[in-house]
Amino acid sequence: MDLSWCRFVGALVVAILLCLQGFCYSEQAPNYSFVHDSTSAPNISYYDYIIIGGGTAGCPLAATLSQNYSVLLIERGGSPYGNPNITNLANFGASLSDNTPTSPAQPFISEDGVYNSRARVLGGGSCLNAGFYTRASVDYVNNAGWDGNLVNQSYQWVEKLVAFEPPMRQWQSAVRDGLLEVGVTPYNGFTYDHIIGTKVGGTIFDRDGHRHTAADLLEYANPKGLTVLLNATVHQILFRTKGKAKPTAHGVIFSDSLGIKHRAQLNKGSKNEIILSAGALGSPQLLMLSGVGPAEHLRSHNITVLVDQPMVGQGMSDNPMNAIYIPSPLDVEVSLIQVVGITPVGSYIEAASGANFGSPAGMQSFGMFEPQENSSLYVPIKVTQAWRSFSKQ
After folding, report:
1. Where do the H-state alpha helices sit in the chain?
2. Of 95, 182, 198, 288, which sees the most CB atoms within 10 A?
3. End-to-end distance of the chain based on CA atoms, in angstroms?
4. For the domain 27-130+211-280, what is the CATH code?
5. Which option is the CATH number for 132-203+319-385: 3.40.1390.20, 3.10.150.10, 1.10.486.10, 3.30.410.40?
6. What is the pLDDT of residues 46-62, one digit of tens each?
């Protein structure tokens, strides 16, 4: 497969566009027979498709392709199942504050000082985030040139397993009423659709407060067609260049949890592919490690340049956020994002509640919210002090 930048982006889009509604359930999470630790992998193995990264794109792609092909899904992290910090709503934030080598979250600080975390677990960011579920706007789908009917079918396929209507308790009800009072109207009730006004969106936490992730979508997989390797770190994508107009990917090198290296190769065939879905940071990083990226940058790291592609790794940005902390003298229920105010100017107003956000310990759980030098985030220090004074009353 030619791993050009456009092809890479196209592979991610496939996860949304594939019409998967007719597939039946094969195995129930977490008892997947096709999930193995990477130490059990043979030295060399062969597949029709090799997917790098078992997150919100990789899992549905693997489930889809396994219906008709042999598929290898390589995930550098472990399983989300059995980890109460991932599964239980009440423990939200504990995974983000876990900095052990086996943590599902890998903290990092960008070159310009921004705190964040990379997912390192089967299911990707859906194992760590606040679990708010919503569909893209109609304008977004049209501008992307997607088939609206096919997109809606794909949404329904996902929603059958991982999306739920949240219970509306005191805090989120107050948020809803406050948004309407200040004019974020109309009130659109509960809906997955992206509509201007105030709405109750979906959640990936069920009524019992248990998280459902993209890893659950592997229930749609054909167990005979899929192999999932956990704790496997891909080091390089292998390309053939001799006699080729463009470099053609034919395999990957990965190491298991013991540091032993293995090789996975594509079977011979015109449609066999390596799909890179390792996230917004991991995917360009792996391309560059494999020789695809800005030539000058690669040479500075003694990486042989295979394709000089200046745009790989460029243009990374995140959504800007203004966070306001409101201390309370009374215990407040734990709730994540359920109500959202969607404004005509494109900004979104959301709120969460609970000790995970308000307490000093909770503040430490979210590196992206921590006060930083030369930052506008000095307010949380005062809020933390206020919380301490309230807690003494």
Report:
1. 5-17, 58-65, 84-87, 94-97, 138-144, 148-162, 170-181, 279-289, 295-300, 355-358, 360-365, 379-392
2. 198
3. 65
4. 3.50.50.60
5. 3.30.410.40
6. 999 999 999 999 999 99
267-293 pLDDT, tens digit per residue, is: 998 889 999 999 999 999 999 999 999
Structure tokens at 33: 């027979």
Nearest to 338 by CA among 352, 321, 323, 356: 352
At residue 208, φ and ψ (nearest 5 deg) are: -90, 5
Contact call for residues 367 and 107 (beta carbons, < 8 A): yes
Bridge-based pairing of strands 115-119 and 202-203 is unpaired
Domain ranges of the chain: 27-130+211-280, 132-203+319-385
The CA distances from residue 374 to 318, 322, 377, in Å, are 19, 16, 9
